[in-house]
Amino acid sequence: MKNGAKMSSSRKKTILCISSYYKGIDFLKSAHNQGWYVIFVTSRSLEYEQWPRESIDDLYFMPDNNKEWHLPDLIKAVSYLARNVVIDKIVALDDFDVEKAAALREHLRVPGMGETTMRYFRDKFSMRMKAREEAVLVPDFIHVLNYAEINSFMERVDPPYIMKPRMQAGAIGMIKLETKTHAWDVIHQLGDDQSNYLMEKFVPGDIFHVDTIMQDYEVKFAICSIYGLPPLEVAHQGRVFTTRTVLHGSEDETALFEINARVLKALGMKTGVNHTEFIKGNDGKFYFLETSARVGGANIVELVEAASGLNLWAEWAKLETLEPGEKYKLPKVKKHYAALLNSLAKQEYPDMDAYNDPEVVWRLKKQFHAGLVITSPKYDRTTKLLNSYVERFYNDFFHFVPMGNKASN
């Protein structure tokens, strides 16, 4: 790990941010604007990304293998830094770094989410166990551990099932199992990794997400959206990814706000931002799927900003840099509607200039990707544009590469 700037001699409050992926730009800028001393640790392979270096006081790089860091080395390196600076806060900007941040907090005894609570926001098995203990509906599930209990589960619950890695993010590594024989074949293929998985009943239905700002176990802001297609189908079968905000004041929104607040409090979320997913089954009931102690991926931050005016990265940094006892002040929120489209593209730099309706407020700038956000104060206008744009995306840009079992940048 190499020093990228000179350590400040003044005693500002110091925030250590870590990210093994290229994200969190607005968080870093906002933390700097709050007057904090910003130390940032990222992957060596990301050294030449467009980090906001003017907002970073000290920049360090960890040796990495496909964004994977050796945790003992990270703890030693940060402990070495702590010889000369007092670290007041530690924040993970990516889902895969949440456990690293928790381990660092435990080792340095820095306030914030520790390793026990962290499991409820990273480990799909732990979060389901805790939610079920708190009488929150979840799809029926079983830890892939004891064979007698797995057999009992499959006698009681008919397929299809979903096999899920406990510590991955999103739809990475998930497998749909159509039969009991298929389930056992996959279990045996996992070998000694079996205990790192859970298996749950596949529940068909619409999948929603609620993106939240929390302080002192209270929801300060929440916005509810619905995926066009399940992320599992998008990732593994090849589809254009879409999500859109739901109708304000609808029964779905009201129910999800209540369940979301209950889930986050039950899991021990004190202060921060969250992206939480639920499915509305064919029985009309909402089931908790998973949550995370981070902003939503796949450019959901841009969706939320278009609909509400709030940048969740910036607001998260404001939360983390509040003085003890200071109350978070929510900025003025607009109640527009927004929709997001993302797709792999067959062109290296897709030309989206033809998508020129005034409701288009953001375009994705990334090689071999096409994406945009539309917004309107009218729900019907957003719906009409989204449906039109999805069809055009398939014709103009769409390309499919099967998702692997691990994350990639």
Question: What can you tell me about this protein's structure?
Answer:
By secondary structure, the protein is of the alpha+beta class. The protein has three domains: 14-112, Rossmann fold, CATH 3.40.50; 140-201, Dna Ligase, domain 1 (2-Layer Sandwich), CATH 3.30.1490.20; 206-396, 2-Layer Sandwich (D-amino Acid Aminotransferase, Chain A, domain 1), CATH 3.30.470.20. It contains twelve helices and 16 strands. A hairpin with a 5-residue loop joins strand 15 and strand 16. The chain is globular, with a radius of gyration of 21 Å. The chain starts with 13 loop residues before the first strand and ends in a 13-residue tail after the last helix. Mean pLDDT is 93; it is low at 2-9.
Structure at a glance:
By secondary structure, this protein is of the alpha+beta class.
Q: What are the secondary-structure elements, in order, as H or E?
A: EHEEHEHHHEHEEHEEEHEHEEHHEEEH
User: Which regions have little confidence, pLDDT < 50, spanning 5+ residues?
Assistant: 2-9
Shape: globular
- What is the H level of CATH, i.e. the homologous superfamily of the largest domain? ATP-grasp fold, B domain
Number of E strands? 16
Count of separate DSSP helical elements:
12
CATH architectural group of the largest domain: 2-Layer Sandwich
How far is the N terminus from the C terminus?
21 Å
Category by helix and strand content: alpha+beta
